[in-house]
Fold this sequence. Notes:
The complex is a heterodimer of chains A (278) and B (425).
Chain A: H1 9-34, H2 44-65, H3 75-97, H4 103-123, H5 134-168, H6 174-178, H7 182-213, H8 223-245, H9 249-273
Helix pairs in contact in A: 1-2, 1-4, 2-3, 3-4, 3-5, 5-7, 5-9, 7-8, 8-9
Chain B: E1 4-9, H1 15-21, H2 25-37, E2 41-48, E3 52-59, H3 66-76, E4 89-92, H4 93-104, H5 116-130, H6 136-155, H7 165-176, E5 184-188, H8 192-203, E6 208-213, H9 216-226, E7 231-233, E8 246-249, H10 260-269, E9 275-279, E10 296-300, H11 301-316, H12 319-364, H13 370-396, H14 405-415
Parallel strand pairs in B: 5-6, 5-8, 6-7, 8-9, 9-10
Antiparallel strand pairs in B: 1-3, 1-4, 2-3
Helix pairs in contact in B: 4-6, 4-12, 5-6, 6-12, 7-8, 7-11, 12-13, 12-14
Amino acid sequence: MNNILLDNLPLLVLNQLVSLFYLITTALYGAHFFRDTLLEKKNYKQLVLVLTILIHVVYLGLLTSTEGYKINYSMANLMTMVGLTLTITYLFIEFTTKSDKTGFFVISFAAGAQLMSSILTTQMANTGIPFSGIGIGVHLIAAIFGFSAIAIAGLYSILYLLLFRQIEQNRFEFLFQRLPNLEVLEKLTMHAVAFGFLFLSITIFAGIIEQKALNETINLLEPRLISLVVIWLLYGTGIFIKPIIGWDIKHMAYLFIFLFVFITILIVLMTFFSPSFH
Amino acid sequence: MNIISVGVNHKTAPIEIRERISLSEVQNKEFITGLISSGLAHEAMVISTCNRTELYVVPAIYEVTGEYLKEYLISFKDARKDVRPEHFFSRFYCGTARHIFEVASAIDSLVLGEGQILGQVKNAYRIAAEAQTAGILITRLCHTAFSVAKKVKTKTKIMEGAVSVSYAAVELAQKIFSNLSMKKVLLIGAGETGELAAKHMFQKNARNIVITNRTLSKAEALAEELGTNKVLPYESFREHLHEFDIIITAISTKEYVLCEAEMHQSMIRRRLKPVIILDLGLPRNVDPDIGKLQNMFLKDIDALKHIIDKNLEKRSRELPKVNAIIEEELIAFGLWINTLKVRPTIVDLQSKFIEIKEKELERYRYKVSEEELQRMEHLTDRILKKILHHPIKMLKAPIDTTDSIPSRVNLVRNVFDLEEPNQSH
């Protein structure tokens, strides 16, 4: 079988190293969340997180170097990109909100994506044509970042609802003691939603520009385009719904969880039924 | 040298006994100086708080025992009618050290981890130091206790989490809102409970605290004390309910101060922005149906007690860590005590050898030059230092199972033919 990893030992080692670093980062953030970290003086976990991102970028560089640094569309590549973008988006959120108590939930998700990618990469033959052109590149990267932000918004919404229920039902247990307060979780969710909206906007515009550049006519009834625009509109509404009509974050949390599940199912279905939907 | 502790505390006696035996600062000074001046003790200190009155005494004569000190304190307080020796605990040597370490690190407190006790132990030591009744042993004991307390505070979570209703209310508010300085707080009722809750809120940076009370002057006095100077007349505070993110009620009334209809209106006016109502009143001040409103967190005393129970549970789980710290310090303290016991023998040993050295050098004083004599003296000093190094090290070494301090001391005294020491302690 013609496999890029099995044919290239340094790449295989780097691929395993990326997965290993994701597991270490998850363990560090997990320890920070589940265990007493009173004595923790140095922020090792953030350092390891940055290191993981750097190794991941180097891995992607090496992976695409044979194709002139162009990534081809496959489930494995999509998963590794999701892992990376989730981690980058989370790091940005951690820096901007100064809250690191939710890292475990996001990074374990990213680690899962990366592990799945590693397994798929070693088992699949090289397929797909690499994408070329700035337009499609921006479109693809923005779409993956957009999905990561959607995933993070969904995860934070789940945490928000869990804490909300614990407070409501006077169950002041583990999550009550460990999670950041409701206002911080709301802020984290809204940051992720704003990110998601921005990247989805870029995805749509880059897609339109790319199709114009290829002189293709835009089919407004195409399911992919309709789904993307609907999701984009829902996220846009999510940002403005609160200041304009005062919809509470609890209902918005339900919306973001629904969107996250819906988009994940959509991507999985598209990947299985239309492996080259781009 | 022994150190005895006797006393009454919340574990050994009910409150009326503790009240009867407690000592004011003036009485405390009088009591400890009396013990020293009467020749009964070398050192003395008393910790007297609302929950405990405990004596720490280094006796000067053998007759001064735990029982003697109990009777002495009962007589001093003229409390023979009410207080009996059975109300007291007594400890000796390391038992005393362990006890004061436990007291200072707040694991012996009525409320586990209640941090006020350390200040009270420090105050007791200050009184003893000022009265010059704290000698080498009590000073070392107290300083070690302070160090234990500091370690416990920094290395464990024994003092974390709210354990009072008013503080639990603030802790809950902080689990909903991230920055209390940005939130508007309404306090309904300026009584003791309300005042405490407002002060805890203020400590956590809440600055926008508005107070309303049936007696306006009380509200104004509390607002002035907090430095907020924001007061609302009791008759009109309901018109402003929508402005507040946190509402604390602590008022004595049979009717609800807040009802569902007005809070519903207030929530519409504030576009469903979350509100927390902390009902600290007994009977309850707030209509329980308010808790069903969207984005409304209504918590009464029972709900807040859940937080307290959880925090106490969490503190209890820290006890093994605290005990490990105490154990470690206890060993170090025990070793130090042992050096006190061997110190007279070390001094005698050194004196004996210096005496021999001086006698021998004296024989040569007029037979050699001054310069040579100095060189000989220097040489003998070095030889003595080397000869004495091992016996002194052996005396100071930690005790093992087959050895004991008296046998070591006797061995050294017999080998080097030292005179018997004076048994003053």
